[in-house]
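step=encode ok
step=design start
structure_in=
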């Protein structure tokens, strides 16, 4: 990562630095030919408030981004939310009822064997948050996003509890856990469980569940939060359009850090009125190596890389066919020198190899334009100019070749 930092006295100055960096990075990604979605993100361990990630769609990526095709809503799954349809429950019994479930240890088994739909179940997860056993409740068909848990509790160390820790505290094994009647442990619940009634959950006795559970009546929830993972097809929180989930590579991340580091480091400066002021910081990272890798992922075909001209290590390759022919060698050399003289990055392939080998090498390493100089073309006064991206080849008079390529390069950036 290449990082840039801003240090200002006024909050408005932070907003301005942040917006300028965001705009600059968007221009950089556009020039690199790299599609990058700006998404809301978690600030993670860096802390701070607003945080925007630049995510480039790629099957080779490691991060999931939720994006709306109907408006500009986009967020990392660590931050994404959706407008779930309201589930209408029956009132259920006055108190929860125990029932035996000896062979139902998962959400799916409870659905299959006892006819309880996943969205009517409460999934109870047990985590150790900063050393303290904590119960996390999500709907049966939902998954927890650990980063949301970390952000909600401002936690520094979060891990799933072991089966032994769970047994020692709750007296049951995973598969029969629940939060009904649990006191003395923090209980967090996802917003999708708010107001739900007639639900099913584990009874903290192996092989037993409870049905008819009314979440707010029967469970001592201490904290409600958005903790669940959004999945494709759920309605956009802004416009209701079904959301897409895209695999991406993170190529940049910018934060409004605030005073977290200047306060910690004891940094202060003189303000306009001569008094001491703690500056406000922003942090702006762009992944140089990641950007290169993402460009290759975005710009390639079965033959190899297709570099955009703006980042191609060489823009043009002069490929010499039959270099022992004096006229061929002279023409190639002259084109090479002329293009270099015009500050074009040009590579000359005068190896004693078959044409197919040379062409495949230029395609593999992705040089945007190839000028092929051979005796057959020169007999008609031409060389061939091939565009890597399209494969299109044109015969161009020798005298016009350098200018022709220069125009192609200018049009491409
Ligand atoms: Zn939308």
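sequence_out=
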């Amino acid at each position: 990562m290449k990082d840039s930092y801003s240090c200002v006295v006024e909050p408005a100055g932070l907003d301005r630095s942040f917006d300028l960096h965001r705009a600059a990075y968007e221009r950089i990604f556009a020039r690199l030919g790299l599609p990058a979605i700006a998404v809301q993100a978690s600030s993670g361990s860096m802390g701070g408030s607003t945080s925007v990630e630049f995510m480039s769609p790629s099957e080779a990526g490691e991060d999931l981004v939720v994006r709306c095709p109907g408006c500009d809503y986009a967020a990392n799954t660590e931050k994404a939310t959706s407008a779930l349809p309201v589930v209408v429950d029956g009132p259920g019994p006055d108190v929860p009822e125990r029932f035996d479930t000896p062979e139902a240890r998962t959400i799916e088994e409870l659905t299959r064997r006892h006819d309880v739909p996943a969205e009517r179940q409460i999934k109870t997860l047990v985590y150790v948050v900063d050393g303290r056993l904590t119960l996390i409740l999500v709907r049966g068909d939902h998954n927890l996003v650990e980063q949301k848990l970390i952000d909600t509790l401002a936690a520094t160390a979060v891990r799933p509890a072991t089966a032994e820790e769970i047994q020692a505290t709750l007296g049951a094994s995973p598969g029969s856990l629940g939060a009904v009647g649990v006191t003395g442990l923090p209980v967090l619940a996802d917003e999708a469980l708010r107001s739900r009634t007639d639900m099913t959950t584990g009874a903290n006795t192996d092989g037993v569940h409870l049905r008819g559970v009314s979440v707010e009546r029967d469970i001592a929830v201490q904290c409600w939060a958005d903790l669940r993972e959004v999945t494709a097809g759920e309605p956009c929180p802004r416009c209701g359009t079904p959301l897409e989930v895209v695999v991406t590579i993170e190529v940049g991340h910018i934060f409004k850090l605030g005073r977290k580091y200047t306060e910690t480091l004891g940094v202060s400066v003189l303000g306009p009125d001569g008094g001491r002021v703690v500056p406000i910081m922003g942090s702006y990272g762009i992944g140089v190596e990641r950007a290169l890798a993402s460009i290759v992922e975005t710009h390639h075909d079965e033959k190899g890389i297709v570099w955009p001209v703006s980042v191609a290590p060489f823009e043009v390759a002069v490929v010499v066919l039959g270099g022992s022919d004096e006229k061929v060698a002279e023409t190639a050399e002259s084109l090479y020198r002329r293009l270099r003289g015009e500050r074009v990055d040009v590579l000359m392939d005068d190896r004693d190899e078959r044409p197919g080998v040379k062409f495949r090498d230029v395609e593999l390493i992705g040089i945007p334009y190839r000028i092929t100089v051979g005796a057959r073309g020169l007999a008609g006064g031409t060389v061939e100019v091939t565009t890597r991206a399209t494969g299109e080849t044109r015969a161009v008079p020798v005298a016009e070749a350098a200018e022709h390529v220069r125009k192609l390069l200018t049009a491409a950036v």
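step=design ok
step=annotate ok -> The first helix runs from residue 11 to 31.
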